[in-house]
Amino acid sequence: MATKGLSGNALKMIALITMTMDHVGLMLFPQNIWLRIIGRLSFPLFAYMIAEGCRYTKSMPKYWGSVALVGLVCQLVYWFAMGSLYMCIMVTFSLSIAMIALLKRGGAYRYLALGAMVGAFFLCEGLPKLLPGTDFSIDYGFAGVILPVLIYLGTTGISKLLLTGAGLVLLSMTLGGIQWYALVALPLLALYNGQRGKWKLKWLFYLYYPLHLVALYGLAYMVK
């Protein structure tokens, strides 16, 4: 009997498609703002699934390591291809997972989580000001790092949705503009059935991110 609603894999596929549309708009068709608007759905969907991954993973170190490794690969590509210090979304999520891992341990580790939060705030909001003349920044900033942490703190479907909404309002107030369209992701998240889905697609999602960026950067370079 089929389970009603959207599985985690379904939500990730929607996030993958909308992220691709966002990056196509950013790199190839900047005049088509509707692509960027649709792309606002991807971050909250991925952030929610990062929180769910932290909740159910059997090994937090391996989970963090997988995300951090993809982030490192992307940063090396950015640096060697463009000399860029811009920190991609995988770096954002690596910081989120590190904080959740400490919260998950409980006890005195919660104080370490608070310290990690202060450190993340410095990396996102303070360090860019200390590196003038560079493009150093962390994708979605501190509000983006905190969003999966807030979602993780929810214990029921309703509380997770409410915390997601609060986090998205904070993010939208910080970034402004079309970021407010990210709130449209909430009805999709309300359809989440709590199931992973039939297929194990973890590495598809990890590998797709750097590969699609390389492809789009190549296309952008050729059409210049």
Structure description:
With 224 residues, this protein is mainly α. Helix content is 73%, strand content 2%. It is built from 10 helices and 2 strands, in the order H-H-H-H-E-H-H-E-H-H-H-H. It has a two-stranded parallel ribbon with strand order 1-2. The longest helix has 23 residues, at 60-82.
What key attributes describe this structure?
single chain; 224 residues; mainly alpha; two-stranded parallel ribbon; 10 helices; 2 strands; 2% strand
Short account of what is shown:
By secondary structure, this protein is mainly alpha-helical. The chain is built from 10 helices and 2 strands.
Tell me the layout of helices and strands.
Elements: H1 8-27, H2 33-39, H3 42-56, H4 60-82, E1 86-87, H5 89-105, H6 109-130, E2 137-138, H7 141-153, H8 157-175, H9 185-190, H10 202-223
Parallel strand pairs: 1-2
Helix pairs in contact: 1-2, 1-3, 1-10, 3-5, 3-7, 4-5, 4-10, 5-6, 5-7, 6-7, 7-8
Kindly report how far apart the N and C termini lie: 52 Å
Topology as a string of helices (H) and strands (E):
HHHHEHHEHHHH
Q: Quick one: how many beta strands?
A: 2
Globally, the shape reads: globular
Largest sheet: 2 strands, parallel
Mean pLDDT: 92
Helix share, percent: over 70%
Q: What is the structural class?
A: mainly alpha
How are strands sequenced across the largest beta sheet?
1-2
Q: Report the radius of gyration as a whole number of Å.
A: 17 Å
Residue windows where pLDDT falls under 50 for at least 5 positions: none
> Treating each run of at least 4 consecutive H or I residues as one helix, how many helices?
10
Strand content: under 5%
